[in-house]
Amino acid sequence: MNVQRPQQVDPLVSNRMSRVRSRDTKPELAVRSELHRRSLRFRVHQRPVESFRRTADIVFRPAKVAVMIDGCYWHGCPDHHRPSTKNATFWREKIASNLKRDQETNETLIAAGWLVLRFWEHEDPISVADRIQELIISRRASLQRKSR
């Protein structure tokens, strides 16, 4: 019988990875600051759909818009992601599972009537805020017309 042993975790790598933020990252804070400056009000790190155990970085509940600011490494940015050379199989599978989860999240939220906006961490926060603001205004107007 061939039993696989778990790989030893390098304490230095483990320590470094434990300090990687999953929320309130610098790119998120920059976009949130710009949105707040424009008097757009939103919720942070909430579930757009209560029964679905996934959160969005920024949630505009009345307009039903969920915003995700994706990290280039963790979400496989086509421009900036560089595959790890150490433990390459593990990291390739990890990034692939993140992408699959992102797709499932998008599909579930869209099916529930939400607009899902995804941006890369390297994108300019002002440009990101411009696009979000434009879509929020458009979405609010559209939802108001439908409710009449």
TrEMBL record:
Disordered as annotated region, ranges: 1-25
GO molecular function, one term: endonuclease activity
InterPro entries: DNA_mismatch_endonuc_vsr, Restrct_endonuc-II-like
Keywords: DNA damage, DNA repair, Endonuclease, Hydrolase, Nuclease
Coiled coil region boundaries: none
Pfam families given in the database record: Vsr (PF03852)
NCBIfam families the UniProt entry points to: vsr (TIGR00632)
Family named by the database record: Belongs to the Vsr family.
Name the record gives this protein: Very short patch repair endonuclease
